[in-house]
Amino acid sequence: MKIGIPRALLFQFYYPLWRSLFERLGCEVVISDQSTKNLVQKGIAVTVPEICFPIKIYNGHVINLIEKEVDYIFCPRFVHIEKGYWFCPKYIGLPELVEKTIPEAKLLTIDIDCRREDTADLKCYLPIAKKLGIPSRKFKDALKGAISDFETFRGLCIRGLTLDEAAEVMFEGKKFEDFKIPRSETTIGLLGYIYNVYDPFISMNIIKKLRELDVNVITFDMIEPAMLLKHRSEETRRIFWTFPDKLYQAATVMIKDMNVQGLIHITAFGCGPDSIVGKEIEHDYADSGVPFMTLRIDEHTGESHLQTRIEAFTDMIKRKIRKVNER
Amino acid sequence: MKTSFPHMGCVTGYKKLLEKLGHEVIMPDPPSQKTMELGVKYSPEFICFPFKVMMGTYIECAQKGAELIVSSGGAGPCRAGMYPDVHQKVLSELGFNTRVVVFDSMFQDFHAFYEKVKTVKNGTPNRKLLGLALFCYILIKKMDKLEKRMKILRAYEINQGDYSKAWKDIVKMFEKCETIRDVNRTYKRAVDIFEAIPRREVKENQRIRVGIVGEIYVIMEPTVNKNVEEILNNLGVEVENVQYISDWVEHNIMPKWLPFPKSHRVFRMSDKVAPLNCGGHDKENMGWVHDFARRGFDGVVHLMPFACLPELVNLGKFPAISEELNMPIMSLSLDEQMGEAHVKTRLEAFTDLIKSKHYAKQKASIGDTIGSAAQSAARKAHSKAQEVKDNLKTAPAAPIKQHAK
Question: Which of A230, A287, B219, B350 is the most buried (most CB within 10 A)?
Answer without folding.
Answer: B219
